[in-house]
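Reminder to self: tokens first, then the designed residues, so the page reads top to bottom the way the pipeline ran.
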């Protein structure tokens, strides 16, 4: 697995990776048991979010105007797609035992590993804390609001579904961070194009756009441009 150390300024970095999406699931193949059903719904939601990201956010904009429920679903899936992209690195680390850290050429291996381990430790603590908080909120909304939504056929308990998604997502991220900290064997390789990213945050949007796409093409990272614009430019 390749993990890219992305400079988002002179002294700040983000870890980034583009890995294949998890295998598609059958929406109609619902397993037995509450936990199994929850994991199945989560997998279907991830699959739909990945499909949206591959098609682009405007792929479904043509055709008949959508009602408020359709627009709400679109906004929800856009939000889910962003969360998937943000946490995909940690989710994919769960199944890895070997990883290569691609980093700017002016960094040493010791600097890279100190950065990676510090980032993963912060991620582990943050996702563990939010997993507990969102887990409690899921139980509360499921128990308190569940009976109300049962009175309205065809309407999902959106608050409970929201906190369920967040709880499972934080759990998977926490496991990925622990895997990266304790069970992944890390090596590194200098990557000159990454060094060029240091100066992009201060460029004018048009110049930054051209440079970003050039670097993304050389690295063969399809979504690096959108990641950098969202994380680095706003940092």
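Designed residues (235 positions):
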């Amino acid at each position: 697995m390749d993990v890219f150390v992305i400079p988002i300024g002179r002294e700040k970095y983000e870890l980034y990776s583009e890995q294949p999406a998890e295998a598609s699931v059958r929406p109609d193949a619902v397993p037995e048991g509450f936990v199994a059903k929850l994991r199945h719904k989560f997998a279907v939601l991830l699959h739909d979010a990945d499909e949206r990201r591959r098609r682009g956010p405007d792929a479904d904009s043509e055709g008949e105007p959508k009602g408020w429920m359709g627009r709400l679903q679109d906004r929800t899936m856009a939000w889910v797609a962003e969360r998937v992209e943000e946490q995909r690195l940690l989710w994919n680390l769960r199944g890895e035992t070997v990883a290569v850290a691609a980093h700017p050429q002016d960094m040493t291996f010791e600097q890279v590993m100190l950065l990676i381990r510090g980032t993963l430790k912060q991620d582990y603590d943050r996702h563990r804390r939010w997993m507990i908080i969102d887990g409690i909120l899921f139980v509360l909304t499921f128990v308190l609001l569940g009976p109300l939504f049962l009175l309205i056929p065809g309407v999902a308990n959106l608050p409970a579904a929201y906190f369920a998604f967040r709880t499972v997502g934080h759990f998977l991220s926490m496991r990925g961070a622990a895997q990266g900290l304790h069970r992944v064997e890390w090596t590194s390789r200098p990557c000159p194009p990454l060094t060029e990213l240091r100066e992009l945050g201060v460029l004018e949007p048009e110049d930054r756009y051209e440079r970003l796409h050039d670097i993304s093409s050389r690295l063969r990272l399809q979504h690096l441009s959108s990641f950098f614009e969202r994380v680095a430019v706003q940092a």
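Helices lie at 34-55, 68-93, 109-150, 158-182, 192-195, 205-219, 224-231.
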